[in-house]
């Protein structure tokens, strides 16, 4: 009489983050099996594991044993606080213009937006934030807060971004309840000011030069000229180093741009090239990595300091000078970004095409370029010619042809406007 071989197995103890975990191992169904019994912290002992092993071996011998059914884990939908924390952490580390993280100002802005959202949705599971909840949040802010429509919409954009990531990763399904025009408050577009008269630009530069003479070593005129004739953003101006300025080739390179398209070469108009040549001649240091418009302690220029100490007094003095001549004052609300738009207007005045202006300004969309183009070129008062003479550049006649999928130009160079030889603005009559 033959003997049936009895199945054998053993108890396994594992050290885990929860403490000792007990498992039983044995052969069944042609392979080695492992069954978890429990944790010591929950009261499971080795004796319990030995009893479980005996039970499983008996089932194997009877032919009753089968692998346990695999149960799919139930997905736990995170609360808005949990999802927003993960989203915010990723944005801080990977966001920004270069993918190397957000700047402090951007971090502070997101913290401000999330602060309003957390007061409303902190412990709400993401799948419970529906259109009705979003609309109720928007109405509450309109009713109870001092935020304007534009600020409320910014918080809604962030809410939509957090939910969108959950949709992309499969945590949620369906559509994003925070998107769509009906979720946003209607707001008036901000005024887009810029200077489009040669006399006003000259007055602003002369005023900045006058302030320079009152405090030697501060180059207000050159900084203003760089915004007007180079189209840099205020952050790009502050980040500009001497290694970015190439007078021999007539270019400067923006390397710390707002977007990938913002990292760009900018061709120096003749007047701006003269300004940089003068500035380079008066440099006190040969350090190529020094900021062109750094502070007295060689630090980076702050945008708030430029507005307060450079632009504001220059605008005041320029308007005084224009008023003494009975000339039209500068437009109200001029900001550093207004001077950037002024650069676009100047390029159109000398006949540059919208694609060319987009490249020089670091834009990816033609919308702003065409908006300024329409205003700048719809003139018959001789101002385009005066602006072209101001920068010392020949005028080109440009025809814009818009198609369904592209924007192209046909450009014809026309004779340069006759003008007297260029000389410093402050010496002009």
Question: Could you describe the 3D structure shown?
Answer:
The chain has 3 domains: 11-62, no CATH class; 80-183, Orthogonal Bundle (DNA polymerase, domain 1), CATH 1.10.150.130; 198-427, Intergrase catalytic core (hpI Integrase, Chain A, Orthogonal Bundle). It contains 14 helices and 8 strands. The protein has helices at residues 46-62, 80-94, 104-121, 131-144, 149-168, 198-214, 220-230, 234-239, 270-281, 303-324, 336-349, 354-361, 367-377, 383-391; strands spanning 9-16, 19-28, 31-39, 245-246, 251-254, 264-267, 396-402, 407-413. Helix 2 (80-94) packs antiparallel against helix 3. The longest helix has 22 residues, at 303-324. The chain is elongated, with a radius of gyration of 34 Å. It starts with 8 loop residues before the first strand and ends in a 16-residue tail after the last strand. Mean pLDDT is 82; it is low at 398-429.
């Amino acid at each position: 009489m033959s003997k049936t071989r009895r199945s054998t197995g053993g108890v396994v103890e594992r050290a885990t983050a929860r403490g000792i975990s007990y498992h039983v191992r044995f052969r069944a169904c042609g392979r080695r099996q492992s069954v978890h019994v429990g944790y010591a912290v929950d009261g499971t002992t080795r004796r319990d594991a030995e009893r479980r092993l005996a039970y499983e071996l008996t089932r194997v011998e009877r032919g009753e044993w089968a692998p346990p059914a695999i149960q799919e884990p139930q997905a736990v939908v995170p609360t808005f606080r949990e999802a927003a924390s993960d989203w915010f952490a990723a944005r801080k580390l990977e966001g920004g213009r270069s993918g190397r993280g957000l700047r402090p100002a951007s971090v502070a802005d997101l913290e401000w937006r999330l602060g309003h959202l957390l007061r409303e949705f902190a412990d709400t599971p993401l799948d419970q934030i529906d259109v009705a909840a979003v609309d109720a949040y928007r109405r509450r802010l309109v009713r109870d807060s001092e935020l304007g429509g534009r600020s409320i919409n910014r918080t809604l954009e962030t809410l939509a971004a957090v939910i969108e990531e959950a949709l992309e990763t499969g945590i949620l399904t369906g559509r994003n309840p925070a998107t769509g025009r009906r979720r946003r408050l209607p707001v008036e577009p901000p005024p887009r000011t810029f200077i489009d008269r040669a006399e006003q630009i000259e007055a602003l530069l002369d005023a900045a030069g006058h302030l320079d003479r009152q405090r030697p070593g501060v180059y207000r005129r050159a900084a203003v000229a760089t915004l007007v004739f180079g189209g840099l953003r205020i952050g790009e101006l502050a980040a500009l180093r001497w290694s970015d300025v190439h007078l021999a080739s007539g270019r400067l390179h923006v390397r710390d741009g707002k977007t990938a398209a913002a990292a760009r070469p900018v061709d120096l108009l003749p007047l701006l090239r003269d300004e940089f040549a003068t500035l380079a001649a008066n440099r006190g240091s040969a350090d190529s990595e020094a900021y062109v418009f750094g502070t007295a302690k060689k630090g980076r220029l702050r945008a708030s300091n430029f507005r307060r100490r450079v632009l504001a007094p220059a605008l005041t003095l320029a308007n005084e000078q224009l008023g003494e001549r009975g000339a039209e004052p500068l437009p109200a609300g001029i900001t550093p970004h207004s001077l950037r738009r002024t650069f676009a207007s100047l390029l159109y005045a000398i006949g540059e095409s919208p694609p060319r202006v987009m490249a020089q300004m670091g834009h990816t969309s033609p919308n702003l370029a065409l908006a300024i183009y329409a205003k700048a070129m719809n003139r018959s008062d001789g101002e385009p010619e005066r602006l072209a003479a101001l920068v010392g550049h020949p005028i080109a006649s440009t025809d814009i042809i818009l198609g369904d999928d592209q924007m192209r130009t046909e450009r014809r160079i026309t004779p340069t406007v006759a003008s007297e030889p260029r000389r410093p603005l402050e010496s002009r009559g």
